[in-house]
Design brief:
Pfam families: DUF7218 (PF23855), Rho_N (PF07498). The chain is built from five helices and no strands. By secondary structure, the protein is mainly alpha-helical.
Amino acid sequence: MADSIKDPEVYEALVREGNSKSKAAAIANAAARDGRSKVGERGGEAGSYEDWTKEELYKRAQELDIDGRSGMTKDELIEALRD
């Protein structure tokens, strides 16, 4: 699969952020094809973390292996996810 990645730098960054390998590959290849600044323009609008439930925020924090997440408030989870 590594041979099919057109922008390995973007791919590795996305995987480190917790994205699946297939999603990271698709975004990295789109970035290589269209330019990095154009990739985000095509996507839908993601909801604000403030619109997420605490449980949803916690699950995302688990996916990203954020330390101390179990004792965090909703606002602290949002802050940690944004960092």
